[in-house]
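Take a specimen:
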Amino acid sequence: MNIDLLYSGCISGASFVDELRAMLTKSGFKEVIIEAKDESKAFIKDWVPGANVENYIVSTVIKGIKP
């Protein structure tokens, strides 16, 4: 894979879980839940073979209530 594509895709726009939770809370969401989808590691590892990005990036299910 062309490394330039990673900078314009999911990897460059990824947020840390704590940062994402803080942004959602600051935006007024309550009961924010961020659940990792461990099965996503199977396809994420193919994005950059040998770089172990699947240990740092994961798809998630994000839930919250906006009162």
